[in-house]
């Protein structure tokens, strides 16, 4: 077998195969190579110079003994796929579902997750976004402290387990998006700098990659080859790129644009759409602007501004980075970014730039009520459902799922899961574990939480608390919201107006706590206040879906507080609009 490793600054490199060292030969490109008899399942590691330390392969495909142990030869061709008929799913019109393998089911494995895929089919989602599955130190964690990006975390089921999961998703018509982290490496097992100039500077989470300095060509290939490997070898349908604003690259061709170009070529080769979704704090739509339009050519990005505006409207919270978003829901729904060259009090400066709504479609921006960050990075990991009644959450769901944006659901959100989703890790090194534990408590202490309120991230009980309880789905107080989500997604699929991504045709009317979304011939009336009467711009016809009992009379729609109704209208010319509070309107009993 041909072993190879990039180690340009070393004088001697050996590959240790099944405990025996073999000399490697250096090439002018900094790559060391050696042919050693080895079959799939053989353990190997690299020894640099005369250190004696056996280090895992930076491009390892399999780490059965953890991130500090040897790598193991893995044969991608040995897996028997059954998804030959799978042609993929494009992002326009999609509904994305974000999940974490370790807490999605009590088993915490890929095979355990497969047993719940039929729930996602029943819900109506199209794309499953899996939080990082790359190897990290310990057994339990969010996955963002990965250090061997190409090896699947063994406690989840390893590379074969992930392939079984992807294959099972495809068999059910579900596309798979994988969360990948290229902006930093975790604090334990990050041996890349021992091999070559992989790092340059640091960011809030750890060492950053050398993307534009000396030796950066191979580092960029390390990133891009890893991305292509997930899409090609694991049949993944797209990638969610974590915190791309932390990728420092001053090259003329940014690594994200280079990635978009190569993924486009791979998509043509495998004959299915491949999607790149960025998480970015920049509020800059150049990321999702086509390359011929001067952008990077990514397919979509998360929009935290939409989340923040929704969160404030639903919960009333206005601390931290939320104060700017009080009363901002209508504007943010129309403009995508609330901070679009405007003052951000949280940052103490102007932030963002406007989205060209005449050119960019809404499906390039993901909208969500919750996600792993916005729940898990709260001190106690409390979900919206811990403080907001399901009827109000249903109104938020109607806004997201009737918008021109690509909606995303965080696991358990659809039934108002009672379980929190807290920060957890399991670093075996006691000093590192204590540093993470105390650092987490101090961080939240500075934001007003008592340190005793912050769960111990190293306690296995924190993982258990964060694991979904599937017995809740069909019980009162939960099934009502699940029925609403399922009905909204089905209506979005059957009525093209609700998924129409054209932002220049998207109208949002608001007065006080009532919003009306204009979606073709449909009006989505969303009431986050007390009982109200809404006068539409046209004659109201059939009520296609409502979360409570509503009354329709001509152009007037009456509905109780914390309720929504999706109404079909018959255009009848310009009509003055207004909102008048009627007497109480009785809500229908929970279904």
From TrEMBL:
GO MF: 4-alpha-D-(1->4)-alpha-D-glucanotrehalose trehalohydrolase activity
Keywords of this entry: Carbohydrate metabolism, Cytoplasm, Glycosidase, Hydrolase
InterPro entries linked to this entry: DUF3459, GH, GH13_cat_dom, Ig-like_fold, Ig_E-set, Trehalose_TreZ, Trehalose_TreZ_E-set_sf
Parts of the chain that traverse the membrane: none
Compositionally biased intervals (Pro residues): 579-591
Keyword Manganese on entry: no
One Pfam family cited in the UniProt record for this chain: DUF3459
Catalysis performed (reactions): hydrolysis of (1->4)-alpha-D-glucosidic linkage in 4-alpha-D-[(1->4)-alpha-D-glucanosyl]n trehalose to yield trehalose and (1->4)-alpha-D-glucan
Pathway connected to this protein: Glycan biosynthesis; trehalose biosynthesis
Localization in the cell: Cytoplasm
Region (Disordered): 570-591
Main location: cytoplasm
Family assignment from sequence similarity: Belongs to the glycosyl hydrolase 13 family.
Protein name per the record: Malto-oligosyltrehalose trehalohydrolase
Species: Saccharothrix hoggarensis
